[in-house]
Amino acid sequence: MEARDAELKKELDASLHARRELGEEYESALVDSFLGKVEQRLDGTIDRRMRRHMAEQQMVVARGSRAPNSPVDSWGERFGFGIVSLILAIPLSAIGVVNADLPGLFVTWGGIVGVNAVHSMRGMNFGRGRRERERKSEWDD
Q: What does the pLDDT read at residue 66?
């Protein structure tokens, strides 16, 4: 960015120098010329930002069609998670009983049920409205 600013500063210096040499009758033409160059620079910057934003939007749309919580993938993922949690429940239950007797067993199984409940509700669209509002505000740079 600094190289462009240095180039623009050189253009401004050249315009001011030309104004001193040519006089006031060419001032409006020199100012118009300099403003035209600034406008071209701004247009280029805006075009780059718009292209980048459009590419980001296309990536979001492309990734949205293959979301990890899509119905095709979620059944296998939930099934696998349930199997793993049941396998891990055996040693966790033993640890809970050894350390805190029956209350330890209840706390252990409460945690297992809670983790499975949160994991199964992860695929539901509770936060979808908030995510869509955040996407609409991505125009800020």
A: 52
Q: Distance (Å, rounded) from C-alpha 111 to C-alpha 38?
A: 62
- Return the residue matching tokens 């979620």: 74
Distances (CA, A) of 18 to 22, 32, 34, 35: 6, 13, 11, 15
User: Is the separation of the CB atoms in 74 and 123 below 8 Å?
Assistant: yes
Using CA atoms, how far apart are residues 108 and 95, in angstroms rounded to an integer? 9
Cβ(92)–Cβ(108) below 8 Å: yes
Model pTM score:
0.39
Euclidean distance between CA atoms 23 and 25, whole angstroms? 6
Q: Is the alpha carbon torsion for 77, 80, 84, 89 positive or negative? A: positive
Residue bearing the bigger pLDDT, 68 or 21: 21
pLDDT digits (tens, 9 = 90+) for 22-43: 888 888 888 888 888 888 888 8
Taking residues 3-16, report their average pLDDT.
82
Asked if residues 100 and 107 have their Cβ atoms less than 8 Å apart, the reply is yes
Whether 119 contacts 78, CB under 8 Å: yes
